[in-house]
Amino acid sequence: MYGNDFSAEDAPGGGLLGEVEAAEVALREAAERGRRVGAPGPDQDLAAYFAEVIEADQKIEPRDWMPEAYRKTLIRQIAQHAHSEIIGMQPEGNWISRAPSLKRKAILLAKVQDEAGHGLYLYAAAETLGISRDELVELLLNGRQKYSSIFNYPTLTWADVGAIGWLVDGAAIVNQVPLCRCSYGPYARAMIRVCKEESFHQRQGFEILHTLTHGTGAQKAMAQDALDRWWYPSLAMFGPPDTDSTHSAQSMAWKIKRFSNDELRQRFVDMCVQQAEILGLTIPDPGLRWNESRQSYDFTQPDYDELMRVIKGDGPCNRQRAEHRRRAHDEGTWVREAAVAYAAKRAEKKEKVAA
Ligand SMILES: [Fe+2]
Ligand SMILES: [Fe+2]
């Protein structure tokens, strides 16, 4: 039994993987067609040209002129996304040695490695905007750039690994599928690949929970407890409500963002309800009920004050996550030095051959 939101066309959420594929086809077609909006003429106003490309739903590429604020917004967003992939390895990495079977270990190890890969694509996408990976890592280590607040919660039981896959990776996909059509080419392309991999993550989490809920009473209780703890922090992953969201309007105009925080949160809730039923778990929200006129579920909002506290550094694991990352970075110094030395040696060899 697997999660049902990504392949089935009639699934709640409308087949998110189908949307990823459609975005990929659109991207390929646009590349084959070439730009309908030609290169800017010598007298053309660059800002007007930029607006035309966005208006025509074409991609802005690294060498194109772009407003400084667009560049900065993208750097901030892509960096925060990359940092989240890397920090997000910690809560699950914590369970690799304790996964209940060799098969579970292998699957979890592959999943955590995928997250490292996502971080890599995203740092590479950010670098095309003129900032180096070293600078980005430094901004994470000194706390000037953020990562998703969800990773500041602890993973107390094996069921938490299931809940993270099902809910946290699930929320990430709902957030990221529209980014496959983001106006900035390198980010859109990275997102297509990331989303395809995330769909496996979501399914493995769902499958862990399904196994537990069909096991002993204690296993089922463990799964319910994980859902109880992860539900509201997962809803908070979509950010503050639209009324308080500072960056949304401009990002929508630039076609970086396509849907508001509240629209995506609603989509996620609607998707999860049926899946929770299949799992036999109860979403911990007494206010959750179908609203016939909206054709969506009414639900209780997460505690946004708590979200702000965790973002500001006061979550259960903020300090632990940052310290772990700093230590891993320091311990990796020799690897980076060795890689630089190896590259220099190879370049020297090549030069000798060419001479
Ligand atoms: Fe990821
Ligand atoms: Fe993931």
UniProtKB/TrEMBL annotation:
One GO cellular component, as annotated: cytosol
Class of this enzyme: oxidoreductase
BP GO terms, sorted: phenylacetate catabolic process
Keywords (A to Z) from UniProt: Oxidoreductase
Pfam families in the cross-refs: PaaA_PaaC
EC assignment: 1.14.13.149
PANTHER family named among the record's database cross-references: 1,2-PHENYLACETYL-COA EPOXIDASE, SUBUNIT A, PHENYLACETIC ACID DEGRADATION PROTEIN PAA
Keyword Hydrolase: no
Protein known as: 1,2-phenylacetyl-CoA epoxidase subunit A
Entry keyword annotation includes Oxidoreductase: yes
Organism: Micromonospora peucetia
GO molecular function annotations of the record: phenylacetyl-CoA 1,2-epoxidase activity
